[in-house]
Amino acid sequence: MRVRGFPEVTLSPLKHFMLGALLWLPLAFFLWFWFAAPLVWPVIEIARLVLVKAWPSLFTAVSQGADLLDAQGHVLAHAGYLMQLSSGVLVNAAPAGEAPRFGFLEPVVNPMVYGYSLPLFAGLVLATPLTRRQRATQLAVGIVLIWLAQAFGVIAESLKSLGMDAGPAGAEAVQRAGLPLELIALCYQFGYLILPALVPAALWIVGNRPFIEMLTRPSCREPVQVAGVETQGPGGN
User: Fold this and answer.
1) How far is Cα of residue 75 from the mean position of the Cα atoms in its chain?
2) Residue 17 counted as domain residue
3) Does residue 153 belong to any structural domain of this protein?
């Protein structure tokens, strides 16, 4: 890579990709967190459509934004990236030994827990030598698929919050809706542990097989001279 005023530097394609990833990934995560609220909006809309339409007896409303509370229940801030659920599950919120205080369960879900795959995928794509059209296509398709995977995790946690975290009343309501608790637990674990890490890696591998094959060749270990500020690799302009 040559920059005016500095001596020419030669990098192998693998080292150039690793350097690009090192630079792009922190920026992608920063932008993902900074624009958290608009980036989770599609996910919340998908979850709203599925939860309210598929299980109207369990979920009456889904809204974006919720209050952050301290241990004493005081409001610290209003977070626009959270998802507030309104359910039809009536529970006793009073501590043991006190007079009953019944209310409808309103859990809060954090979609960001399932969304770190988005900046991870974006950073990998931006570090890969592609044409502008290839990069834009991969980002557009990948982001939509990641939103779907993220929504799967959010929906599974929403069901878990009623069926497994709300006590006997929630478990009974979920089972009446025809949902086995074992299936909810399996979907939650899959959406929480597997999908966020698997989806970005799979999307990047499928979209960049020629580049990955080139990296595995012995010739890739040899330095290549790169001219200009922006590098163009296989398939570049």
Assistant:
1) 26
2) yes
3) yes
- Of 106 and 28, more confident: 28
In the chain, how many domains are there? Answer: 1
- Nearest 5°: the CA angle 14, 18, 22 is 170
Across the range 146-175, mean pLDDT stands at 92
Determine the Cα–Cα distance for residues 117 and 196; give it in Å rounded to an integer.
5
Any domain includes 68: no
pTM comes to 0.82
**Top-confidence residue, 143 or 212:** 143
Confidence band (pLDDT; 50, 70, 90) for 202? very high
Radius of gyration of the chain, Cα coordinates, nearest whole angstrom:
23
The size of the chain, in residues, is 237
How many other C-beta atoms are found inside a 10 Å radius of the C-beta of residue 184? 22
Contact 192, 153 (CB under 8 A): yes
Structural domain of residue 183, as residue ranges? 11-62+113-224
